[in-house]
Each structure stands twice: as structure tokens, then as C-alpha cells.
């Protein structure tokens, strides 16, 4: 596996500047690339359209819809029965049950939807990245500088808690 650093940039001019800078710093054309990431749901990776059956935040929506439909259907049947006595029509029971199940399924599904958690994402239930122009650079070739990924205190344009004696990063 190659070690890759990637960034999403807002403007094409920024992408062009980064690509020129990489080339001028000795990176070979085979060590970096730019590409566009489509908006969520527009990668056409799922057989019937979209990217997946459901994303990570919506994977429990189906069970919510079924539960909501059952509860809503029962409530709707009760309301329909009451309405059938008042308006003297047995059709009100059927309509009440159908409307209750429909509204319940919508409510139940929406109650289960959450923002996706990147740590629990899988190929089957992804959390997709934001769309836009990306630049990727392979950085594990011999002679490449050490690249760290870490957290620190950044204030007024300075890394305040940097200590050269302590190796940080992953």
C-alpha cells in the first residue's frame, strides 16, 4: 500500500497551482493526480442507482419504517373504526388503517435517520466525502520528507504546542 496525502480544493486555479508546485518540487507525474469527486449519491455504484442501499446514518431507517407502519396502522384502524361509526361507512376503517400505516412508516423511518459516523462507515453503509476537486500525492518514495498527522494547538498562525523533542503523529 502506498502512503497518500489528499486534499479537496475549492477552485480550479488552486488545483493548477498545487499541481505546478508538486512538479517543480521534483514529484514525477506518476506520483500525483487530480480528479473530481461527484456529489453524494451520484457515483452510480449501486445496481439500481445511487451509491449504496443506504448510507451509515440511514441504515436503520427500514426497521423504523416497519415499526412505524405497524403502530400507525393499528392507531389508524382504531381511528377509522371510530369514524366508521360516526359516518356509517365500513370503508373508513380501511382508509384509517392505510393512512395510519403510511404516516407511521414515514415517522418511524425519519426517527431512525442520523448523521453518518465516519468511524462506523462501511462499503455497504458509507459516509461519503464532500464533492469537489481533489489532489492526491504519493509520499512514500525514497527521499520524501517525513509527513506526520497529529493534533495540536494552533493560534494566530502558529503551532503553539510544538515540541521538537517529542515525536508525534501516526
Concise structural overview:
With 170 residues, this protein is an alpha+beta fold.
Description:
The protein is 36% helix and 14% strand. The chain is an alpha+beta fold and 170 residues long. It folds into 2 domains: 1-38 and 131-170, no CATH class; 42-130, no CATH class. It is elongated, with a radius of gyration of 27 Å.
Task: Give a topology summary.
Elements: E1 4-9, H1 12-24, E2 32-37, H2 61-87, H3 91-112, E3 132-138, E4 154-155, E5 158-159
Antiparallel strand pairs: 1-3, 2-3, 4-5
Largest sheet: 3 strands, antiparallel
Strand order of the largest sheet: 1-3-2
Please report the distance between the alpha carbons of the first and last residues: 16 Å
**How many structural units, i.e. domains?**
2
Helix amount: 25-40%
Q: Average pLDDT, to the nearest integer?
A: 85
Percentage beta strand = 5-15%
Global shape: elongated
Radius of gyration: 27 Å
Number of strand segments:
5
Secondary-structure element sequence? EHEHHEEE
Number of helices: 3
Low-confidence stretches: none
Task: Specify the structural class.
Answer: alpha+beta
Main features:
170 residues; alpha+beta; 36% helix; elongated
Amino acid at each position: 500500500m502506498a502512503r497518500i496525502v489528499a486534499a479537496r480544493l475549492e477552485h480550479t486555479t488552486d488545483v493548477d497551482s498545487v499541481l505546478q508546485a508538486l512538479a517543480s518540487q521534483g514529484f514525477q507525474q506518476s506520483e500525483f493526480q487530480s480528479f473530481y469527486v461527484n456529489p453524494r449519491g451520484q457515483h452510480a455504484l449501486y445496481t439500481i442507482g445511487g451509491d449504496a442501499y443506504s448510507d451509515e446514518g440511514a441504515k436503520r431507517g427500514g426497521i423504523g419504517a416497519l415499526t412505524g407502519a405497524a403502530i400507525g396502522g393499528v392507531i389508524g384502524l382504531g381511528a377509522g373504526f371510530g369514524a366508521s361509526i360516526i359516518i356509517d361507512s365500513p370503508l373508513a376503517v380501511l382508509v384509517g388503517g392505510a393512512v395510519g400505516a403510511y404516516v407511521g412508516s414515514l415517522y418511524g423511518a425519519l426517527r431512525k435517520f442520523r448523521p453518518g459516523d465516519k468511524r462506523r462507515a462501511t462499503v455497504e453503509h458509507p459516509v461519503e466525502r464532500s464533492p469537489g476537486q481533489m489532489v492526491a500525492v504519493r509520499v512514500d518514495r525514497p527521499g520524501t520528507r517525513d509527513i506526520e498527522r497529529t493534533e495540536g494547538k494552533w493560534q494566530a498562525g502558529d503551532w503553539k504546542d510544538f515540541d521538537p523533542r517529542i515525536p508525534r503523529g501516526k
